[in-house]
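Me: I'm a chemist; would you kindly supply a protein sequence with its structure tokens?

Assistant:
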Amino acid sequence: MEIRDLRDVGSLVIDTAQTLSAAFATGYEPYAWQTLQSAEAEVRESLADGHLSVIAVDGDLVIGWVGGIRRYRGYTWELHPLAVHPEWQGRGVGRALVTALEQRVYAVGGRNIWLTTDDVIGSTTIYGQDIYPDVLAQLARMQDRGSRISFYLRLGYTITGCIPDARAPGHHELIFSKRLAV
């Protein structure tokens, strides 16, 4: 596996879009990149100023992609999105991509990264629950049931907030943050 900047290999935009679409093809609500057209638009947007776009390749096959968006005058960046082709999940591709993005963010002066991820499949104990009025207490008691939430926690991210009922009642968007000390 090799980590590369997508800007250096622009010919892989369509391949990257196919990986993004495949990564979100099942287990996600229809708002995800389930068409090649919507995935390609997302990938092309990542090539604009104020963005970082990093891919993982195995030979000429794009196996993963992570994007970064400059926020807060570049001191803080948003990780958006992270996609690993289903056939490559669980092999360290996501970890390598997030680490590469963190290094690039740090190199351009960024010191924090934040991201959101939603629970649409019941991967936490707050899924389907009314977490109002004491959202922070509910987050403090929340348990992960083995999902991408534990993935980000293992990478050193901290749950710093939540948007309750973001997609529908009981479908909460979790906010993660990490201070970079690369």
Q: What stands out?
A: The chain has five helices and seven strands.
